Amino acid sequence: MRRMTLPRWLAATLFALLLLAPGPLVLNLTFDNAPESYFPKEAPAVLFDASVREEFPEEQVLVGLFGGEEIYEPENLSALHELIQHLEENRQVERVLGVTSFDQIRAVDDGFTVEKIVPPGAIPERSGSQWQEHVRADRFAPGLLAARDSSALAIIVRPTELEDSLQRLELERAFREAVAEAGLDERLQAVAGHVALDVWQLRSMLRDSAVFIPATTAVGLGLLFWMFRRWLVVVAGGAAIGAVVSPALALMVLLGHPYTLVTSILPPLLAALTVAMLMHLFNALSHAHRRGYTEESALAYSLERVSRPALFTALTTAAGLLSLTLSPIRPIESLGYTAAFGVLLAYCVVMVLLPPLLARFDRGNWSLPRRGIGGLDAILKAARGFALRRAGWIVAVSALAIAATAPLITKIEVESDLYEFFPAGHPITQDTRKVEDALSGVMVVEAVFDAEAIDGLQDPAALQEIRDFQRWAEQREEVDYALSMVDMLEEMHWAFHDEDPEFRTLPGRQDLIAQYLFVYDGRDLYDLVNRDFTRAIVLMNLNVTGAREIGQTLEAFRGELDSSVEVLDWELSGMGRLFAEQEELLIEGQLRSLIAVAVMISVLMLVLWRSAAAASVTMLTNLSPLLVIFIVMGAFGVWLDMATAMVASVAIGIAVDDTIHTYHGFLFYRRRGSSVVAALARALQHTGRAVTATTIVLCAQFLVLAASDFQPTAAFGLLTAIGLVAALLFDLLLMPAIVTVLAKRFPRLSLGRVSA
């Protein structure tokens, strides 16, 4: 019988170090859910976008929408201008756009002049209705800075390069404080844009972590107490969870990885897996006490029964999680590394460090209460009898059911939509709709044009190509607003000719264009072209936010640019491109992860069972729940996005836990001389109780995540719980049925063996 070799003082010291040492590192955890933290740093789209940002402003902005019947009254316009001035004093703000700060080109006696749409000094000179008509008549304001129906005005806060989500939160708070100081808080109707979305995602992440980490821990410990009715399991469980979760978070800090909405799943996930491992140990202790073992002998017997299968479950679960590291999405990769480390650490804590401490402090009774885990026996007895008596029927019905529903998998849509991640009634969703209805879409795409020579973008032929593409894009339903240097040049040409509508066109001579640019003394032009006139952008606001629709729009852009642009080089940039290409990264990562997890777990199964047939049976049992998850996703229209892309690897990594314990129990009794049916019956009686209890605990903990108002997190929790329930049913019914059928059809077939 196995003896514990780790001295108690050493176990206690290591346990204390795991609990206390990570604390200072965890305090340095970086909270960041900004889009930049998700994309691969070396991806072509990311590198190109970085080069564009070196010359052009940030397109991830904060939009404030102000409305009311009297919004154009002079006192409100003055308040808005004061707000703009106040915000531009903020070190995090590069510029603030509004009707009192955006350029307007007007005719004067000797040519044209550049002033503001609403000159601040002239605000008292006109009435509200006059300013309303003036703004409505401006070429650029409607759809950008003013509602087309004149019901609202907007302020666009363009930040400097912000490092993380916390800085975006700081900017959003500064904006709201400035609005209140300007006396405009009652007129503030919406706060939207990518900065606002990032802030709401950060809030959701922090709130979910504050709620779900203690909630999942409490649920797990509560169920442990209900099943074993001992306070010792609560204390040991809480300490074990702390000794696993804290070092995993510390590893995240050491790796330089931020804490994102994706990696926020780590603490509740590790808490659930640690509780599951504890469940097997405590169930084995209970079984040992019922057999007459006491204290250290019971602990030694329990470790003999569960330590080896627990090691392989830790390895297979870690393998499933490590497959996430193949994803190009950085937070998913980070979750893979840290969660795999946490699972292996959980094995060390539960199976190596905890037993010596239990031997020192455990003096209680482990007999099962009828209302606790012992209450599962009647259900398991019925399931056991059904699985062994109706084996062929179970295999046939399972195969037919999966075959009939498998086509639903083809209905899964690979899609991500940042603005669908929250419910329809959520503030960011409502505010975004208000801004889109009043102004234009919030998803930005830039068509970037490059000329070979300095001043190459003063060539009328080059400018005509830009103009033709922009006019083509403006006709598409997805494009709400477009702006380029061509628009500015047309305004200069129009104003220079006394605002004659016939001259609101692109100048046809390069020397005239150069003259206009020399006279121009405004600011907004150089947000659209660099000062060498070698690179220019067409800024487009799209009213689609889903990655698939954006991708289709970008393909249409590329097709038009390919066919119509000859003089200039071109490329697409902006948040729209980055987000659309994320869809391709998700598909790539999903395929890599599924292949890797299947290969790694298959190899581990071969090593553990030493039989290809046994490995095939257990792999079939483990892969079937994945089919169920994908079938559910297809049937109910659940998207494959950043969160649900992790479900497969996580679910198979967890599901294999119960399979290994159950099949190991079967081989354990076979080695002791039991027949196939008897060994299955005894394994299901003993380990079935533990795997059922484990599934109950894990499902309860993952269902807690389903309460999140962040839809991907909720979907992750719900789908993982569904996968675990399916895995339990396959372990208790399908796997015994397959083994029974194989044993009858092929009596000499090796069904595996385990070491003594």
Automatic annotation (TrEMBL):
<feature type="transmembrane region" description="Helical">
    <location>
        <begin position="714"/>
        <end position="743"/>
    </location>
</feature>
<keyword id="KW-1133">Transmembrane helix</keyword>
<protein>
    <submittedName>
        <fullName>Exporter of the RND superfamily</fullName>
    </submittedName>
</protein>
<feature type="transmembrane region" description="Helical">
    <location>
        <begin position="211"/>
        <end position="228"/>
    </location>
</feature>
<keyword id="KW-1003">Cell membrane</keyword>
<feature type="transmembrane region" description="Helical">
    <location>
        <begin position="690"/>
        <end position="708"/>
    </location>
</feature>
<feature type="transmembrane region" description="Helical">
    <location>
        <begin position="391"/>
        <end position="409"/>
    </location>
</feature>
<keyword id="KW-0472">Membrane</keyword>
<feature type="transmembrane region" description="Helical">
    <location>
        <begin position="310"/>
        <end position="329"/>
    </location>
</feature>
<feature type="transmembrane region" description="Helical">
    <location>
        <begin position="646"/>
        <end position="669"/>
    </location>
</feature>
<feature type="transmembrane region" description="Helical">
    <location>
        <begin position="621"/>
        <end position="640"/>
    </location>
</feature>
<feature type="transmembrane region" description="Helical">
    <location>
        <begin position="233"/>
        <end position="255"/>
    </location>
</feature>
<feature type="transmembrane region" description="Helical">
    <location>
        <begin position="335"/>
        <end position="361"/>
    </location>
</feature>
<dbReference type="GO" id="GO:0005886">
    <property type="term" value="C:plasma membrane"/>
</dbReference>
<dbReference type="InterPro" id="IPR050545">
    <property type="entry name" value="Mycobact_MmpL"/>
</dbReference>
<feature type="transmembrane region" description="Helical">
    <location>
        <begin position="261"/>
        <end position="282"/>
    </location>
</feature>
<dbReference type="InterPro" id="IPR004869">
    <property type="entry name" value="MMPL_dom"/>
</dbReference>
<feature type="transmembrane region" description="Helical">
    <location>
        <begin position="591"/>
        <end position="609"/>
    </location>
</feature>
<dbReference type="Pfam" id="PF03176">
    <property type="entry name" value="MMPL"/>
</dbReference>
<feature type="domain" description="SSD">
    <location>
        <begin position="585"/>
        <end position="741"/>
    </location>
</feature>
<dbReference type="InterPro" id="IPR000731">
    <property type="entry name" value="SSD"/>
</dbReference>
<feature type="domain" description="SSD">
    <location>
        <begin position="230"/>
        <end position="360"/>
    </location>
</feature>
<keyword id="KW-0812">Transmembrane</keyword>
